[in-house]
Amino acid sequence: MANTEGDHLAARDGEGPVAFKDAVDVEATPARPPTAHTAAAVSAARVTLQGQQLVRVNGYWVFDSWAQGVIAMRRGGLVPRATVGDVLLASLPKSGTTWLKALAFATMARRAWPPASPDHPLRRLNPHDCVPLVDSLFAVGRDKLLDELPSPRLMSTHMPLSLLPATVADGSSNTKIIYICRDQKDRLVSVWHFRKRNDLPDLSLQEVYESVCNGTCFAGPVWDHMLEYWRASNADPGRVLFLKYEEVLQHPGNTVRKLAHFVGQPFSNTEEEADVVAEIVKLCSLENLRSQKVNKEGIRDVIIKFSHDSYFRKGMAGDWRNHMTPELGEHLDSILCDKLDGSGLTI
Length: 347
Ligand code: A3P
What we know:
The protein is an alpha/beta fold. 41% of the residues lie in helices and 13% in strands.
């Protein structure tokens, strides 16, 4: 049930979210293991992808090291705020999460931080330090930091809708969700490059491909992940906004307007005339984000350490063609076509 706890951290009168790292002291907060939950919640099924153990939680594959945290989060650990609802960004990894974080943060915080301001948080913080990944905070037991974030809270998750707290999943809380999906062929190529850039145990492209096809990749099966959010967005478009990476690439300005409208902060005529939308698009562009010192040098620590620069690569649609045969591409497309059949979702 949504409660008002945390609402004492008053909403900042239209000023939008505060960057996570500006609001809390992550390093000063010791990590603690999440409370152990019944083993029954985690099925005995396990797969190992080159040293990384994945376990099955409610039909989805989750890192072994994250499972207890995910269960704790779902069982009420993440308490949605009532008066000023939270905004949760959801995605499978490598679907454009970093970009969405930047766009949503810049749009929602534009009153406090005009996008052209030289000291904008996105010019000194990685987008992941502006918008926290709740799954990883629960995994390392730093979830209490979420209580310190002033409203409106802007947060993210890689979990499917059914692994979120019940009131978020069923729509009875005031939480709004923005989901981004991506062509799975490009996504898996991106996963493969990301692993290489971070010196993770070698996983061939074929292994990544197979894990997507047979549903055993992290947060997979991917079709169920996408379908849950797709159906929720069809049932209640005011609660769940469903975006596609490829469409954002084509029309970033329209996406920014859509985001603003969805979170109840549409652009005024004055803002339109002042080209604020274009400023946000420019601030969040791959070129601009990649060129920031913090994104060239920093490290993100979510149990595994990832370099900030590894989140920015080509940022295009269709790169899979440089890595896969057309036959492999068609095979994955046909699996997805089958799984998504009748839903109206095409990717
Ligand atoms: P590629 O590896 O295909 O280039 P995530 O943020 O979910 O981890 O996804 C990373 C993917 O999004 C990478 O894709 C990355 O290059 C791309 N990306 C990151 N920032 C972007 C931006 N500002 N604009 C477009 N694409 C971006």
